[in-house]
Design brief:
binds lanosterol; two-stranded antiparallel sheet; 834 residues; globular; mainly alpha
Length: 834
């Protein structure tokens, strides 16, 4: 027999290696959020809101507050709400059954009343330019005096209770939430209670134990009696799902602090974790900053087992029976048995068996240890870390969860348990109390705690990009100058070298989502603000009359953006990625997905790439090669994140329409042609989702299930299309030079049809999201995305008619078209000068 020179084993081995290499090459980046979740875990229950609604008192007014003697830095851009007996007109009635998302009516009414300039045209706009102009005429009336746009940033339902509990425990209800506040909070809580008696985890979520247990407690602490119908229904819902013993861990934590749940039933949060060596893979300094900064005050309070004297307080002691099954005796509950218990309806991200074992081991440590000296050193470190965060953020802290915990911790640390009065006089506590209003907002649904201390930088940046794209900067000169000034002033100048002791990277040159004093800049907010600044600085009126911005400050932003790129080519949110996706095995939260590390995101990457590209066009000499390399690596990351159906999942906006917009724009700015396979696939995906009325729309289930969720009717609309999602889809399609012009035109027609007579657009469903499971309002989003879309359509129009103003040459997807029509631009410029 003749033997072949290549043995069968060699062929098999080579084949195997090739397959392995192919699989490895095609593997998803660690940041890929995963395909659709299994049907058994998908969101099928729907929220059902009550028909009746609860009115907010007339008398609430927004105002700017900037003065303080206790804070380390000047307060900037803080919108606070004051209540005066001098009544304004009654706010419109909120109708949760129609739409649980409020439309910021009180704030807008107040702004429109103050407005002294010209009123928008009442005529029905006949062309795109008039629609955009009318929109801006309205929007300029909402601008705050300092140049930013403020607005309602509500949505999550687990934030307000933390603030109320902290205020109650510290005995500061009267200072933090005096009577009118309590009334407005009651209205909010009652408006969002659902027909089944529960509350959702966020504004559009069906009732969960997370939402219900916390909001029930808040309702009682702001003065609603246990016998009232809302409380009875709330108790019924909780009891149907096992009572507070089945609440998720973050809710249990607040209950333990309030003394209505015992610490033995809490999974340990040992402060010793901060003493692990830096190289250790599980060091908390590697966690996503939001996760790390929530568990920081938690571990400090946990180590002290701080507990309010509930037995001496009438409401808290009543809660000890209200929160549990009828007849269940608080003193007889075996708390230890409920450490891991959580209701099925809440269990979005079940605790992994590995984490359970770890928690069991830690429970043993808590029982037989902990070594006193170790606990002291680690607790002292945690406290020092918290104090440093307070100073860096001007007592705002990174977000609302940590804010409420720091408020309480600062009081406990100042000796509040033994001498409440002297604790109340401590500088830290007073400063914390002063910064509570930065998180509060009043809308027609009541007083809420916002997801952040506002979204000013984000909204202002997009608004100005839209003004540039619409060619309206000179027409709205005062508005643009004020916004420019605000953006220049809000660039972060602190921590140029980072604060590595507390795992803080250098942040100089960045922009935060809200303000500079909050001191937590985000990669994509930096990029979007940078884009706005780069576009505006070229504008004649800004050059002549705007406050100067040194080039060095722009270079700082470039350094910031380049240094925030991750090894996988993408950009994360606040920091470089410092851990691995297997950290999710340790996710202790049950209710949030993907919170353990700062992943790379398509949205953040696309924004960063676009900003760097725009910069390079203006400064071709500055770090051009590095920038070009970074953009190409970014594009490869975006390609790797595309799903097999051609879409991109949106992690911070609801949902695929948002992801697709960023995915396409990112690839285009890296020079990929609109005809490349990924872009064509995405265009096909989007066109396949267009509704018969010409629009697009996704329910929040898209985010939760990670699968496109169309509905026949979405909140606040008469169809399954919303203006915001339609505009995102259109921006993506137009940037991709979509050949189906008719589809684009039908989408634009829907946007035009839905413009209100005021120039604004209606508030529809929830547009923002975080951690897969929580919806969050994006206040100005509707307006700004729409204007951008219409401006892009207008761009098309100018291009055809030969009247393209120079400032409109910005649309990335159009760069190829633009280059061919450069002479056209020149002509337009000449004409403008003439
Ligand atoms: C935000 C709001 C803005 C958002 C964008 C800039 C839109 C996004 O592109 C990047 C991520 C970022 C900055 C973001 C991250 C998570 C935040 C801070 C939030 C959604 C607002 C509230 C949320 C925060 C985590 C809420 C507190 C809850 C915890 C689970 C800690």
């Amino acid at each position: 027999m003749i033997r072949s020179p290549v043995s069968i084993e060699t062929v098999a081995l080579t084949g195997g290696v090739c397959v392995a290499v192919l699989v490895w090459l095609r593997r998803r980046p660690a940041s890929y959020p995963g395909d659709a979740i299994p049907p058994s875990k998908q969101l099928k229950r729907e929220a059902k809101f009550q028909e009746k609604s609860h009115k907010v008192d007339a008398g609430w007014k927004p105002c700017v507050e900037a003065q303080s003697e206790v804070l380390p830095h000047q307060v900037s851009g803080q919108q606070v709400w004051v209540y005066s007996s001098e009544k304004s007109e009654d706010p419109v009635l909120f109708s949760p059954a129609n739409n649980p998302n409020s439309s910021d009516h009180i704030f807008r009414q107040a702004k429109l009343k103050e407005w002294k300039g010209p009123q928008p045209d009442s005529d029905i706009p006949l062309d795109c330019l008039s629609v955009v102009r009318k929109g801006f005429s309205f929007y300029q009336m909402l601008q705050c005096d300092d140049g930013q746009w403020a607005g309602d940033y509500g949505g999550p339902h687990f934030l307000l209770p933390g603030f109320v509990i902290a205020a109650y425990i510290t005995g500061h209800m009267d200072t933090i939430f005096p009577a009118p506040h309590c009334k407005a909070i009651q209205a909010y809580l009652l408006n969002h209670q659902q027909e089944d008696g529960g509350w959702g985890s966020h504004i559009e979520s069906p009732s969960t134990m997370f939402g219900t247990v916390l909001n029930y407690v808040a309702l009682r602490l702001v003065g609603v009696e246990a016998e009232e119908e809302a409380c009875q229904k709330g108790r019924q819902f909780m009891r149907q799902h096992g009572g507070a013993l089945y609440a998720p861990s973050w809710a249990k934590f607040w209950l333990a602090v309030l003394g209505v749940y015992e610490w033995q039933g809490i999974a340990p949060v040992p402060p010793e974790m901060w003493l692990l060596p830096q190289w250790f893979p599980l060091h908390p300094g590697r966690f996503w900053c939001h996760c790390r900064m929530v568990y920081l005050p938690m571990c400090w309070l946990y180590a002290r087992r701080f507990t309010f004297k509930a037995a001496e307080d009438p409401i808290a002691s009543a809660l000890r029976s209200e929160l549990y099954q009828e007849g269940q005796k608080y003193q007889q509950i075996e708390w230890r048995r409920y450490v891991h218990s959580v209701a099925d309806i809440d269990n979005y991200s079940p605790i992994h068996p590995f984490m359970r074992v770890l928690q069991e081991a830690l429970l043993l440590y808590e029982r037989f240890g902990p070594w006193k000296w170790l606990r002291k050193i680690s607790s002292d470190f945690a406290l020092e870390y918290m104090q440093s965060e307070d100073l860096e953020t001007n007592y705002l802290t990174i977000g609302p969860v940590s804010k409420a915990l720091h408020l309480l911790a600062s009081w406990v640390a100042a000796g509040g348990e033994t001498d409440s009065n002297s604790a109340a006089r401590s500088t830290a506590f007073r400063a914390h109390v002063q910064r509570v209003p930065a998180y509060l907002w009043v809308a027609e649904d009541g007083m809420k705690v916002q997801g952040y201390n506002g979204s000013m930088a984000w909204d202002t940046s997009f608004a100005m990009q839209a003004a540039v794209e619409g060619g309206l900067v000179s027409e709205f000169k005062d508005m643009s100058k004020k916004a420019w000034q605000w953006l220049v002033q809000e660039q972060v100048r602190s921590l140029p070298h980072g604060d590595w002791r507390h795992w803080r990277q250098p942040i100089q040159g960045g922009w935060g989502f809200s303000t500079a004093e909050q001191a937590w800049p985000v990669s994509d907010t930096t990029a979007e603000a940078f884009k706005a600044v780069l576009l505006l600085r070229k504008h004649a009126c800004i050059k002549a009359e705007g406050v100067p911005m040194p080039d060095q400050h722009l270079f700082d932003t470039v350094r910031f953006l380049l240094s925030y790129q991750n090894g996988d080519g993408g950009w994360a949110t606040y920091e470089n990625n410092r851990g691995w996706s297997w950290y999710e095995l340790l996710n202790p939260s049950e209710v949030f997905g993907d919170i353990m590390i700062d992943y790379s995101y398509v949205e953040c990457s696309s924004s960063a790439m676009q900003a760097l590209m725009l910069f390079t066009e203006q400064f071709p000499q500055h770090r051009a090669r590095e920038i070009a390399g970074a953009i190409q690596r970014g594009a490869r990351f975006i390609e790797a994140m595309q799903r097999s159906d051609g879409s991109w999942y949106g992690c911070w906006g609801n949902c695929f329409t948002y992801g697709c917009w960023f995915g396409i724009e990112g690839l285009l700015c890296a020079g990929r042609p609109a005809s490349c396979r990924p872009i064509e696939a995405c265009v096909k995906f989007l066109l396949g989702k267009q509704n018969s009325d010409g629009g697009w729309g996704e329910d929040f289930a898209s985010c939760f299930n990670r699968e496109y969720a169309a509905r026949e009717k979405l909140y606040g609309c008469d169809s399954g299309s919303t203006v915001v999602q339609t505009s995102w889809a259109l921006l993506a399609l137009m940037a991709a030079n979509c050949k189906d012009i008719e589809a684009v035109q039908r989408g634009i027609a829907l946007l035009r049809r839905r413009q209100l007579s005021t120039g604004d657009w209606p508030q529809e469903n929830v547009a923002g999201v975080f951690n897969r499971s929580i919806g969050i309002t994006l206040p100005s989003c509707a307006f700004v995305s729409l204007i951008q879309t219409l401006s892009a359509a207008l761009f098309e129009h100018h291009l055809q008619s030969g009247t393209l103003p120079f400032e409109m040459c910005f649309h990335y997807g159009r760069l190829d078209v633009l280059r061919q029509t450069m002479d056209l631009v020149m002509v337009a410029n000449e004409r403008a000068k003439g």
